[in-house]
Here is the input.
Amino acid sequence: MMKSPHVAIVGATGAVGVEMLLCLEQRNFDLGELTLLASARSAGKKMKFRGEEIIVKELTHDSFEGIDIALFSAGGGISLEYGPSAAAAGAVVIDNSSAFRMDEGVPLVVPEINPEAAKNRPKGIIANPNCTTIISLMALAPLHEAFGLESVIASSYQAVSGSGAQGIIELEEQVSAITNGREFTPSVYPRQIAFNVIPQVDSFTENGYTKEEMKMANEGRKILELPELKVSCTCVRVPVYRSHSVSITAKFTRPPSVEAARAAYTGKPGIQVHDDPANMVFPVPLDTTGKDDCLVGRIRESLVIENALDLWVVGDQVRKGAALNAVQVAEIL
Ligand code: A2P
Here is the structure.
């Protein structure tokens, strides 16, 4: 086993990279050394870690000598180009992009659900799932264990920080423009995001679903090892700063009940039940912002589909949906 590994963060200056630094610090990660990598634009910039300043270096193919674990979050193109170099230099790559997720030689890991999958990594690469997939599966995996998952119908409510810093800026500028009667032109999103919702996240595929929606379906099958799982999903961008919410109808092979569903979460790490309608207790995005745990509530027996539950799950997509999950994978190494 590795002792106090030398960790590198590729994309350290990005939204997820910054959160990775925070997770390493807050979780007291047993770290030998930390190398921060980004584009040439950021080389020389100083970032704080555990009270010390670390100078950001430019990412090159030679950046990975002596690195034990490389956390990648600089987009799929960078992962495809530099991930294999890092693995060849002997680092275990934990990649937050979608580049390797469906590669058969690359495990796709949520530590609370399939930690053992991380052990078998013939390419030296482990993939971090899509944020909406992780948050949905945090709610679904305990129910799958209890009742046997058969199919999923879901709608997501995804925060603008999922589009990086630019998403937040666009929302703020539009709110300001509208409330001050100024003209504006959307650029990050295809339509106005302020005071609106947009039923399109990522580009459309041939079957009419978006890539984001197909990620939910395909990644869920791989992680739960349910190749026949049926998933139908609508991903929606909403004018929320941070934390994704997902409304899910899940059908099971064995009859579920609300009580048994709530009990299924008992003792499960990373997910808490906030479900007391009589007292207006249900999760909202602001409840999970900056937090590690996902929250599940509004658990009901479906009025339409037999052996199905309706539920609502919320999680911080920058954290559990990306940075935290990657750091947790590093921890199980
Ligand atoms: P930089 O800040 O130097 O551009 P986000 O998803 O928040 O936009 O962050 C993307 C991250 O990926 C940033 O850290 C960014 O670094 C990094 N990045 C983008 N392009 C490159 C590149 N060509 N080489 C290395 N890092 C890159």
User: Anything to note?
Assistant: The radius of gyration is 20 Å. The mean pLDDT is 97.
